[in-house]
Design brief:
The complex is a heterodimer of chains A (about 280) and B (about 425). With about 280 residues, chain A is mostly helical. Chain A contains twelve helices and no strands. The two termini of chain A are about 20 Å apart. Chain B is of the alpha/beta class and about 425 residues long. Chain B is built from 18 helices and 16 strands. The chains are: A mainly alpha (about 280), B alpha/beta (about 425). Chains A and B meet through helix 2, helix 3, helix 4, helix 6 and helix 7 of A and helix 1, strand 2, helix 3, helix 11 and helix 12 of B.
Chain lengths: ~280, ~425
């Protein structure tokens, strides 16, 4: 199918505008992180700092335990991503392959559960974790994140499972493979891009999550990055903008790195075998 | 290695990893008491002052260890509410008096009446204690407060030749209106009102003109009456924006920090801000920029204005209330109160602390602010149940529309009173 030149120009212009729209906050964050206070208070801000400084980073590290918080965030996000995927994969398989009334009800429940507000859940969750002695612990937080991301992970993975031809599994069964063997050796490799995408979703959700971490973690050595970032904000929303931008920039990097490392895998996997040659 | 083995190894590693970062208990098992002090101090100097004081306490009180935990103003209410419900609240709680009412009435905070030392009780004025008194109990110790002041571009003020106000001889609201007009022109506004949160600013400044707004009858019920005294400040702001064009219309939806770039660039000659904003101004002002602190205008009731002081409370669930009270007493000794105030660029509530020479220096307007301390009263909405809903659903939109010129004074009054009283009535059945 050929696209006319004006249409193509329009497409590229729209794409460029969208990219600028997406990139603007992040680029502004980087710019702000390297600016001295006088430039932050300028009426005519510049993209490139006139007198770039690392003071904001120094102050951010001096004032807050950023490395410790980053490690906590990493543990919570990795734990949540791995466990959510391990639980969601077989469940999604069942939901996708067995189209019974129960599976439909489960799918409906998954969708409905996404509508529950955080505030509704937090106090019961808090009490449950308290009884399990998991308040103020990363494992407790991981448990919450797994529960929180599981419905969407399930929904996402079920779509990927449906995209895997059932004939491949039938062929494996004919060759003598059992259910688990088929799932592990045939379906799982084909699901790899979906699993990676789902894990990435669970990781980023947990990495950025603030409210549960705020409520469940009491001591500074347990707190995660989003909670620590709020310590740069004072009453009435006044912010220590330079150190906040520096810390926020550092907090954004791991997500970007993880995504950059595996995004080719996702797209590559999704497109593999899409066209017969 | 089979896929099943890989999964088993992965799970085992993850379990070990997470087990390794499991939390311990709440304190040591050596018989020492551990108190958690959640501080909301956030600026570099004030965080350091708080941590230093905790270190000093711990060095001299081996049996009662205090653990400094940093909270955030941004989310303190939700976080405390959840902690209270779950029985996991910090022992010592830093907050603001206007956030305490629901916690006090809900039984989450300890009544400090019998826990505080005589020195602390008599060292803080009665008007400050009123902000933390709910029913018959005292639920916090007010220790830091900030008046709203005018931060002015000193060069523009000098150039214009206007009389510079002092706490002894402040501008009246009318004079302030005239000065703002005189400072306007050539693409410059005399004043920029940052009114993202218009209600507290309007209500607190209106005390100077005799505005009460909330009137309590003999049976304890509160009604809203928007009388002449309540109208002076809103009318002044409205006229500056819509009639005189001496106030910038674009800053009405801004926070205080958002007005600073324009202020530094000479776009606005004056900005009404909280006293603690001086720290940001000092940090961000371009070299050679000369600024000064002026008292807010005075009305029929002089320089009176409402404040909601920062407070220290003790959780009702704390098993060590006496020790927590002793720590609060230590933290709020006059010298320490001064350290906390300087760190936060605010004023202490304590009478002795207010006499400290460091707070009477003209540098950075400290002396001007300190001279206003005696005029600070409890914010009018302090003890009104239903105030948060009235503020969010009725007063904020009504005032924003009035200031932008969309509605007039008559409609503002009607909405504040009629809609407002309907809201308050629900809380007073």
């Amino acid at each position: 199918m050929r696209t006319s030149t004006p249409a193509r120009v329009g497409q590229y212009a729209a794409l460029l505008a969208y990219l600028v729209f997406l990139a603007f906050p992040f680029l502004w964050l980087i710019s702000t992180a390297f600016k001295p206070p006088q430039e932050l208070g300028s009426l005519h801000p510049t993209w490139i700092p006139q007198n770039p400084t690392l003071d904001n980073f120094r102050q951010a590290f001096d004032e807050q335990p950023l490395l410790r918080a980053a490690l906590n965030s990493l543990l919570a996000a990795l734990g949540a991503a791995v466990i959510a995927v391990l639980i969601a994969t077989p469940m999604a398989y069942v939901m996708a392959r067995h189209r019974g009334r129960l599976a439909r009800a489960a799918t409906g429940w998954v969708v409905v559960s996404q509508a529950f507000p955080f505030v509704l859940l937090i106090i019961p969750l808090f009490l449950v974790l308290k009884n399990l002695r998991l308040i103020n612990s990363v494992p407790g937080l991981v448990m919450v994140y797994v529960v929180w991301s599981l419905p969407f992970a399930l929904w996402m993975l079920a779509g990927y499972v449906r995209a895997v031809p059932a004939e491949l599994e039938e062929a494996a069964a004919v060759d003598g493979a059992g259910r688990l063997r088929t799932l592990v050796s045939v379906t799982a490799p084909l699901l790899a891009p979906g699993i990676v995408a789902t894990a990435l979703f669970a990781f980023i959700t947990a990495w950025n999550e603030f409210f549960f971490a705020l409520v469940l973690l009491k001591t500074p050595e347990k707190q995660t990055l989003p909670v620590i970032l709020t310590h740069f904000i004072g009453a009435e929303g006044v912010a220590d903008l330079g150190p906040l931008a520096a810390a926020a920039f550092l907090a954004t990097l791991p997500s970007l790195v993880v995504f950059a490392l595996i995004q080719r895998r996702i797209t590559g996997g999704m497109l593999a075998g899409a066209v017969k040659s | 290695m089979t896929a099943r083995t890989k999964i088993a190894i992965l799970l085992a590693s993850l379990t070990l990893l997470l087990a390794g970062c499991s939390g311990g208990g709440d304190g040591a098992d050596d018989g020492r008491i551990t108190l958690r002090f959640q501080s909301l101090a956030w600026q570099e100097e004030s965080v350091e002052a708080n941590k230093e004081l905790v270190r000093e306490w711990n060095a001299t009180h081996p049996d009662v260890r205090v653990e400094h935990v940093q909270g955030s103003w941004d989310s303190v209410h939700d976080q405390l509410l959840t902690s209270f419900e779950g029985g996991e609240a910090p022992d010592i709680i830093h907050d603001a008096s206007d956030d305490l009412a629901d916690f006090a009435y809900g039984g989450y905070l300890a009544d400090l009446t019998g826990l505080l030392s005589e020195r602390l009780k008599s060292g803080i004025p009665e008007r400050s204690w009123e902000t933390v008194t709910f029913g018959d109990g005292v639920y916090g110790v007010p220790f830091l407060q900030e008046p709203r002041v005018l931060i002015a571009n000193a060069d523009l003020l000098k150039e214009s030749g206007v009389r510079v106000p002092t706490p002894e001889d402040p501008w009246t609201w009318e004079e302030f209106g005239r000065v703002a007009k005189r400072l306007s022109g050539d693409g410059r506004y005399g004043v920029a009102w940052p009114l993202k949160e218009p209600v507290s600013a309007t209500l607190n400044l209106s005390l100077s003109t005799g505005g009460q707004l909330f009137h309590r009858s003999a049976d304890g019920k509160v009604t809203v009456r928007f009388e002449e005294g309540d109208q002076v400040v809103p009318r002044t702001i409205h006229d500056q924006v819509n009639t005189d064009r001496s106030a910038s219309p674009t800053t009405l939806g801004s926070g205080g920090s958002d007005t600073l770039p324009g202020f530094f660039a000479g776009k606005y000659a004056m900005v009404p801000l909280g006293f603690s904003y001086r720290q940001q101004i000092e940090q961000q002002a371009p070299d050679g920029f000369d600024w000064q602190v002026l008292p807010a205008p005075a009305g029929a009731d002089g320089l009176t204005q409402g404040v909601s002081p920062q407070t220290l409370s003790i959780a009702e669930d704390s098993p060590h209330k006496k020790e927590a009270a002793a720590f609060v007493d230590f933290l709020l000794q006059p010298d320490n109160m001064v350290r906390l105030a300087l760190g936060d660029w605010m004023l202490p509530t304590g009478t002795e602390a207010l006499n400290d020479p460091a707070l009477h220096t003209p540098e950075h307007g400290w002396a001007t602010g300190t001279a206003l301390a005696g005029h600070l009263s409890p914010a009018p909405a302090q003890s009104v149940r239903g105030y948060p809903e009235w503020k969010d659903k009725v007063a904020t939109p009504a005032l924003q529309e009035y200031y932008s010129g969309a509605i007039g004074m008559a409609e503002l009054r009607e909405r504040l009173e009629e809609d407002g009283n309907l809201v308050l009535a629900r809380y007073q059945r």
